[in-house]
Amino acid sequence: MRFALLVQADPAHSPSAISALRFAEAVAASEHTLAGVFFQGDGVQVAQRFRRPPRDESDLQARWAKVSEVCTLSLQLCVASALRRGLVDVPEAARAGFEAATLAPPFELAGLATFLAQMQTADRILTFGVAS
């Protein structure tokens, strides 16, 4: 089975963000594959380069990086959501005149068309958002 994940939950405030990560880790450890992982809305906060979790909490950013490495896939952020929250890569930082990028590797900026392409190659699409 091939899965595409859409993560919309803030990693600091929603159990859905942790559920998304645990699901991705389970897929990485199985015979199934990830077609892609796309972060949108507050979900992009996981890619904040300067974010450091307290010592008694898991480093979600490092765990996502491990999933990316094991599954050999990039972790993509909705460019509009990222820019709105101050997350920029090196080219965007230079364009805006910022001193440094705020986006941690292996996360990348991407448009919604990228997620649509991932959806087309997936057997199942799972959304991890915020309950209303």
Describe this structure in words.
By secondary structure, the protein is α/β, with parallel strands linked by helices. It has one domain: Hypothetical Protein Ychn, Chain: A, CATH 3.40.1260. It has helices spanning 15-28, 60-71, 79-84, 90-96, 112-121, and strands at residues 2-7, 33-39, 75-78, 107-110, 124-128. It has a five-stranded parallel β-sheet, sandwiched between helices. Helix 1 runs parallel beside helix 2. The longest helix is centred in the N-terminal third of the chain and has 14 residues, at 15-28. The radius of gyration is 14 Å and the shape is globular.
Defining traits:
132 residues, alpha/beta, Hypothetical Protein Ychn, Chain: A, five-stranded parallel β-sheet, 20% strand, globular
The low-pLDDT segments are none
- By CATH's scheme, which homologous superfamily applies? DsrEFH-like
CATH architecture: 3-Layer(aba) Sandwich
Would you tell me the overall average pLDDT?
A: 93
Q: Structural class from helices and strands? A: alpha/beta
Number-wise, the strands total: 5
Form type: globular
Helix percentage range = 25-40%
- Biggest beta sheet attributes: 5 strands, parallel
Number of helices: 5
Number of domains: 1
